[in-house]
What does this fold into?
Amino acid sequence: MVSGKSSGKEIEKERDRVVLAYSGGLDTSVAIRWIQENYGLDVIAVSIDVGQPPSDDDVIARALRNGAIKAELVDAKKEFVEEYVWPSLKANAMYQNVYPLSTAVARPLMVKKLVEVAEREGAKYISHGCTAKGNDQVRFDAGIVALNPDLKVIAPMRECPVTREEEIEYAKENDIEIIVKKESPFSRDENLWGASCECGALEDPWMEPPQGVWKKTADPEKAPDTPEYVEIEFENGVPVALNGKKMDGVELVASLERIAGKHGVGRIDHVEDRLIGIKSRETYECPAAITLIAAHRALEGLVLSRDVIEYKRGIEQKVSQIIYDGLWFDSLRPALMAFVDETQKVVSGTVRVKLYKGNYTVVGRKSENSLYDMGLSTYSEGDTFDHTSAIGFIYCWGLPGRTAANVRRKQSKK
It folds into this structure.
């Protein structure tokens, strides 16, 4: 690995501590030694569990063997769902109306935990493994300074970008213990809310994603030939039960992911606009997120007025942009979420969704707060609508157009 000290001169000479966002992968395993050599800092490795697949070994023990003075695993799954996923669901957050922000919404929680450890341990620095071309570097850096502007950021992969082969050679030369799995051409990130995949064949936007990019979802063509129905109960905009069984957030999301994923639901192929200006082709697998957002929107359509729904759509787009751009801790998000939370006071009820070969279709919804009136809606016996009122209503509704047309007619005769 290339040794670089270009930024080291900005670091104070006395030995200090850095909190490393540690996954146990190749990049962060190598980063422990690289930071020690190039910055003269003691490394505290922190792994934050937001529902990603478990490691093949004890990553915390391996971090200590590789030179970290401390290492800890933070179980943040419950907090992730309740404090980050549910707010984004209330806002139906979908970046560019396509991507449910599975990776992006986890970053502010990770930042929060890293800052908490840094403040507890008296560290002056936080380090992450983000590259210079991605969105995550912005989310980490901007989030850190928003919570504690005195903390400085070290980003080894941004400062000294290297190849995988160079990293492996560096690990061998420095007796760094790594787990080198079969090399994949794809870069993948997973948590409870979904998975993202990029690089390799996906860099050609014309090529159909190969099967190797999909891990959480069945091939829709090979999914069960019989549809499955799920019923999701909401209270104040938050899912609380699945198929009649009360569940906490972590269990509900994990359960729905398995069910919807089995039917091939949740595959997304998207060319998105990254924050730094690059268009990037990404695939996402978000079975639970896609299903829950569809159900939540359907319930809102039943209990919210047209004006509230239409105004909320603009708020949702802005909230999505804020999350994607790494501005979770800025003052605008909680202000917008105050509006969203107000709308959710009546979003309680049950939604039935049909899952079948990659498709998810809302086929039923009910709520005590429903604004749907059968007497007004029906064309059959029991119709309570005053049909004679339509004439007067249409006259008033069309009056501006009628007035303008009369003016144009008079002007044309001059």
